[in-house]
Specification:
The protein is α/β, with parallel strands linked by helices. The protein has helices at 2-31, 46-59, 74-81, 93-103, 143-155, 205-210, 215-218, 243-252, 255-265; strands spanning 36-43, 63-70, 87-92, 107-115, 119-121, 136-140, 160-161, 174-176, 182-186, 200-203, 221-222, 230-236, 270-271. The strands form three sheets. A six-stranded mixed beta sheet has the order 2-1-3-12-4-13, with helices on both faces.
């Protein structure tokens, strides 16, 4: 009888341990969260370099960032709209507004990213030298960056534009061209490689840096610090509140990433989310 009771007690103890073991396993399984992934599109150059750093920061928060690199400004928005991306980092607000207006994309700004001051470069002129009459000037051929380039030239009093035209300016909005500049509209990405064929070229900073030019040191003139063209992070309307997007924003706008930008770009690129 005692032996039977002993066997019964042992059996109950083993059963209790088994249940406890299963319970512990379930708890462990429940605590293990599935890996979160966010696919982010960027243009080549500084945006891609910054994303490589953000990727490391986000990984510490349990978010895997897949970076998809593009060589133009058009495809990142197309890919985002078509669902091939979750978010992109490559444009300023006027460019997004123009894209949404023209293509009816349901894309929205979710956060500020960085400042890229646009600047003018030349292989034939040094800073402070006058641009000769009849010079060939290269500007981006997309609507907002082309307008931005014309605003930069107008700020230098090299041309005059229609009052209040702003970033929507085109060559047709030039009201005075006293130096008879010849304008050549080119894809923004190829302007740096076309510099030898131009007297002056107005180039987006991300493409300038990608070819070894620093807008602070190498340009003949540059946008003022008051330029409104802060770059932004963009996603689809339905993704705005997605936890993955919010985690990404925190990683991007972290002090760690701000320090990387300051150290890596030496002032040619600055955080756009910090107060000045």
């Amino acid at each position: 009888m005692k032996k039977s009771i002993s066997f019964l007690a042992t059996g109950l103890l083993l059963a209790a341990l088994a249940v406890a073991g299963c319970g512990g396993s379930d708890k462990k399984t429940a605590e293990k969260k599935p890996e979160q992934t966010l696919k982010v599109g960027v243009t080549a150059g500084p945006h891609a370099e910054i994303l490589d750093n953000v990727k490391k920061i986000a990984a510490k928060q349990g978010l895997k960032v897949e970076v998809v690199e593009f060589n133009d400004y058009i495809q990142p928005n197309v890919a985002l709209f078509q669902g091939e991306l979750d978010l992109n980092s490559m444009q300023h607000r006027p460019y997004l507004d123009n894209t949404v207006k023209d293509r009816k994309y349901d894309l929205v700004e979710v956060a500020k990213s960085v400042n890229f001051p646009m600047a003018a470069y030349s292989q034939k002129l040094k800073k402070g030298e006058a641009i000769p009459d009849g010079a060939t000037v290269g500007i981006p051929n997309d609507p907002t960056n082309g307008g931005r380039a014309l605003l930069l030239l107008a700020a230098q009093k090299l041309i005059t534009l229609k009052d209040g035209i702003g970033v929507r300016a085109t060559l047709e909005d030039i009201t005075a061209n006293p130096h008879n500049f010849q304008f050549k509209e080119l894809d923004a990405a190829i302007i740096p490689r076309s510099l030898a064929d131009l007297d002056v070229a107005v180039i987006n900073t991300n493409y300038a840096i990608a070819t070894g030019m620093n807008p602070v040191k190498d340009s003949i003139f540059i946008e003022s610090a008051e330029s409104p063209f802060v770059n932004i992070l963009v996603t689809k309307e339905k993704m705005k509140a997605d936890p993955r997007v919010q985690t990404f924003i925190k990683a991007y706008q972290s002090e760690e990433n701000a320090k990387f930008i300051a150290d890596h770009f030496k002032g040619s690129v600055t955080p756009g989310w910090t107060s000045k």
